[in-house]
TrEMBL record:
Functional pathway: Amino-acid biosynthesis; ergothioneine biosynthesis
The organism of origin for this protein: Kitasatospora atroaurantiaca
Protein name as it appears in the record: Hercynine oxygenase
Gene transcribed to yield this protein: egtB
Catalysed reactions listed for this entry: gamma-L-glutamyl-L-cysteine + hercynine + O2 = gamma-L-glutamyl-hercynylcysteine S-oxide + H2O
Keyword Oxidoreductase: yes
Described function: Catalyzes the oxidative sulfurization of hercynine (N-alpha,N-alpha,N-alpha-trimethyl-L-histidine) into hercynyl-gamma-L-glutamyl-L-cysteine sulfoxide, a step in the biosynthesis pathway of ergothioneine.
Pfam family for this entry, one: FGE-sulfatase
Positions contributing to Fe cation binding: 53, 139, 143
UniProt-listed Enzyme Commission number(s): 1.14.99.50
EC top class, as a word: oxidoreductase
Keywords recorded for this protein, A-Z: Iron, Metal-binding, Monooxygenase, Oxidoreductase
Amino acid sequence: TPDTGTDALRDRIAAELFTARERTAGLTDCIDDRDLTAQHSPLMSPLVWDLAHIGNQEELWLLRNVGGRDPLHPEIDPLYDAFEHPRAERPSLPLLPPDEARKYAHEVRGRVLDLLAASPLEGPPLLRDGFAFGMIVQHEQQHDETMLITHQLRQGPVALTAPPPPAPAQAEDLPAEVLIPAGPFTMGTDTEPWALDNERPAHQVDLPDFLLDTTPVSNAAYQRFIADGGYQDPRWWTPEGWEHRNRAGLTAPLFWSRDGGQWLRRRFGTVEPVPDEEPVLHVSWYEADAYARWAGRRLPTEAEWEKAARHDPATGRSRRYPWGDGEPGTEHANLGQRHLQPAPVGSYPAGASPYGVRQLMGDVWEWTASDFRPYPDFRAWPYREYSEVFFGPEYKVLRGGCFAVAPVACRGTFRNWDYPIRRQIFAGFRTARTVEQN
Ligand code: AVJ
Ligand code: FE
């Protein structure tokens, strides 16, 4: 019979499964069936696809692989295999209609809760520390973020609302940048129980001195780049970036428009003035990279980002989060879709890293200079299609999560990746520079 430690883990898993499903319901019960089955952008699936795909992955990994059960509806598997059908093609598939998709996900969930009650949560690697359950919770939360992106792309009446993040308690004079002194640190993890394969294994990385922005780049700063003709000057852009800028006709972040002298943005169905103090959002890697060059700086590498976020110079250890090893609280970071926008730059002093860097977790995903590559001795686990098939120069790494990322799907080691042209994701950036040696 399970011991107490296992009972606590079982309760935590059940709570996380519940939280994820509440969020999924909130994202799919607020619009009608026509909106759920429509394709709002060729970049995205119809929301009803995500809904059944969430149930299908849960069935595959938990009921079939862990539980050894027979498939509930084997004929639908190919419809919800992300590798069989590109997103643009999904609306023309014979997908489960909304009510059947909900019923299917609900049916799977009931059986998963039975399985959880009977699982030892130890022994085979998929069960150890409840890993397979943790992976599926994160998978649902990742698709909830994807569905939130679809909501942002959707035209039509407002369906989602949330209060704005609280304004920072008092105006602080933060330094523009922070020195991260040279030295080795531990990147990646061997001990984080629900870390995904690309975050492993832990390894030492030695970095020279560098300087990193204290906060993400703000809309005010980004508007100076625009006003200074940054989008018209090929000096700031890589050749591929410049070519893309011209082909796509980029002149400002996605969802921005010009109204006389003022920039407006569309946010979940509402048009409002661009708030100067918020981190810039909805820029591609190419735009982030061009801004950094215009500013006389560069994007940080992934290793620099992680050292600034995790390394504790007092102990020489890497922490789970910038603020320490404790779980994210509302005072630490803007995570979990509590708000539908990032918080002003300089918010969350309690979430600062030991070096004093702010907002590394939450608010906006941060583009890094790095391609998505495996760490030394990487081992694909439990499936190649999570990370391994994406390694290579076509994808850039993003770090830190954003307001749409659930705490369970975010930590100092978490790695996200996307194409450098992508702008619909909730991505911004901060900049770095190398310290000149004399
Ligand atoms: C890790 C966010 C890039 O959404 O493409 C979801 C996560 N993998 N289902 C994605 C994922 C399989 C993945 N990202
Ligand atoms: Fe998926």
